[in-house]
Give the backbone structure.
Amino acid sequence: MAKGYWIAHVVVHDAEAWQRYAEAASPAFKAHVGRFLARGGSYHEVESPLGRPRNVVAEFPSLAAAKACFESETYQAARRLREGAGIASITLVEGFA
């Protein structure tokens, strides 16, 4: 079965609020067997007009699991904590089987 991935590009305006969101979102990732492959580390942007300095890649057992995590009540409650704390672009992607 093909794995599923979250790919996020983020600009954080309020680090404390963003940290509260990240902590509250953690149980949703654990419940859907998600694990972070990259999360806010050093990066080298080679092509992008957006300039989003925080980049996140999370892996799930399937695209359905990635979607279920995003749609879960736990994640949606956490997501509300980051409103106004930054700008995020999140894409769910199916990997190769």
Q: What stands out?
A: The chain has three helices and four strands. The chain has one domain: 4-43+51-94. The mean pLDDT is 95. The beta strands are 4-12, 35-39, 54-60, 86-94.
